[in-house]
Amino acid sequence: MTPTYYLLLSALLFTIGAVGVLVRRNAIVVFMCVELMLNAVNLTLVTFARINGSLDGQVMAFFVMVVAAAEVVVGLAIIMSIFRTRRTASVDDANLLKY
Amino acid sequence: MSNSAMLLAQAGAEVAKVSTGEAISFWILAPLALGGALGMIFARNAVHSAMFLVLTMLSLGVMYMVQQAPFLGFVQIIVYTGAIMMLFLFVLMLVGRDSSDSVVEVLRGQRVWAAILGIGLAGLLVTGVAEALTSVRPVGLAEQNAGGANVANIGRSVFTDYLFPFELTSALLITAALGAMVLGYTDKSKRRTQRETADARFRGEHDRPSPLPGPGVYATANSVAVPALLPDGSIAPESVSAIIEATASRELATDIETVAGAIPGPDAHALKPAAAKEGDK
Asked: Is B78 near chain A, with CB under 8 Å?
């Protein structure tokens, strides 16, 4: 086993997250799939930090976590305000711009 | 020439091998992470999805620690599984656990195409990475992490090389906090008084000026399922709540027939013989 296996695992996790974003209709679950994709990228960054023998990748992963936290806060607030006006958390029902 | 290249490649392959303990932990954690991710996609209930994602994130956190990133491993567990997933669960509980996915496909064949695209993307990524990085020799972070200096070195890096991005993240966090407050704010200070509500009613802002008639008013029975009767004897449909409207009609059939007069209502004299018998005893 080599560190490449971690990269393969993270590629699979990223794909699962992307498919989840396409398939699921509940906005919160879609959001969780985005989080999974961010986590997969973090695993890649940590693995590359180890392969290259430099801490830059870990610092980058740290920044990704900060941005993800900010994104979660704003995204969940948006979902809450959509839910408050439309009484639904489904991405299909938030189609005001469509018509 | 080719001989030495082969020797070098062999040496690279030797070095690229990780320790047995790490291999064991990887083969335990990787199926857990993958299973969690798949479970998250396929779970019908959103809370189960969140729990599966927690499993994946915990396995990733342990993997970070195994991969010489102890600080990130702990941050992963504390921030992601601790704070962010709790936030998710909090919002799930607010929105309502039952708001599960609709099975209706708005775009035809979307799921099939998503699966095909996913398999294609996975194939491309996996073969690409496997092809490009098989003979990579990892340098390792033993030097940077010597004596538990991982956190110190990350901190030094953040406050020297990455100082400007770090300052930018502070601005980002403040913006996110403000944004969440603005989006989550509802103005409760301007609550209407009774007088204003009454005026608005008669100005026509509501459907009707008076409250809805209660069920059973002027009717022959006082069940909630019985609609109120208007003075002319007709049925007031607004008096029955929407929940009863939605119940199966056979459960209300007898009530409806009673109101319609198909079944004679309870006779006041019907109780008399029984009462007389009671008295006889």
From this structure: no
